[in-house]
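hey team, just a heads up i'm posting the complex here instead of the shared drive bc the drive is being weird again. everything in one block, sequence lines first with there labels, then the predicted structure for the whole assembly after. its two chains so it's a bit long, scroll down
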Amino acid sequence: MKKSLGAKTLVYPCPDWIVGTYDENGKPNVMAAAWAGVCCSKPPCITVSLRKATYSYGCLMHSKAYTINILSEDQLVEADYFGIASGRDEDKFAKSGFTPVKSELVNAPYIKEAPLILECKIIHTYEIGLHTQFIGEIMDVKAEENVLDSEGNPSIEKVRPIIYATGDREYFSIGKKLERAYKVGMPMAKKKE
Amino acid sequence: MKKSLGAKTLVYPCPDWIVGTYDENGKPNVMAAAWAGVCCSKPPCITVSLRKATYSYGCLMHSKAYTINILSEDQLVEADYFGIASGRDEDKFAKSGFTPVKSELVNAPYIKEAPLILECKIIHTYEIGLHTQFIGEIMDVKAEENVLDSEGNPSIEKVRPIIYATGDREYFSIGKKLERAYKVGMPMAKKKE
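-- predicted structure starts here --
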């Protein structure tokens, strides 16, 4: 018997991605966003939702671009700080010690120290309510060589992305490898009904 | 120095959520979706993207509603099977042994055996490209009592949701608790520039 918990955003897992933008004066800014995910394979697209009150909201509306920076769990202090402070009040790059790198593909900076980053051009904006959704086409993915696996893909076990648990507002690390997708369920798929 | 990997959906973590729908004849169906995330706090909303070719796509267009079912890593075989087979060819509930429960709030079934489920009413549809995005307003969240923590929230450590790694198409479990959000970065936020 399930217990009703009400109309809330209680769902797992959520990411903890860092959105990189330039403001009107070209100052690089970053903020943490958990309301985000992939939303299309072709063109490859990401969706991220921000509140209008955030400084980044104005930056995205102005620059029509953003980066998604995936930090490692070793960079949790910086990731959390990016979700606490506002670029309206301070230079978050300066205070964190991270280095902004100007993307050559979109009008947004990425974090040099991030193991994995995506450069995105905004192709659609939708006002939902408290949050506005920004769909960005992924123009390129860049990764540090030391997080690539033997097939040249970024390894989730080497990136060690931060996972956000909305209910208790806690961060978690990635756990153990379970099984290969489109394989472990194959015997059930082949079973006669 | 970062290596360019091209315009791909290489980003971590992604969820492995099971989307529940009814088809035109009222047959309950489920499919796995990794292109998904939260997209608004007020109203609380989820976004999930499906390819037009899927059987569920027609179900969502018809029923204007869906459930998001978060399975535990113990239910990985069923979760993977739901991403392999099509409801066009078979009854995935029957074959998996899972039980459909008719939602009293939206026109969609949820999985009785899932530890955590969300009942969603579609409020917006957007054709991106290969995928179509369905924004669903969360009408209620329901959880098994045994996954609730002392504060009444679903505990991610008890739910043990499946995490999907897109690059290598592998499933991962949730790892260890790191730190509390909006707390671990506070000393950096309070530091003078």
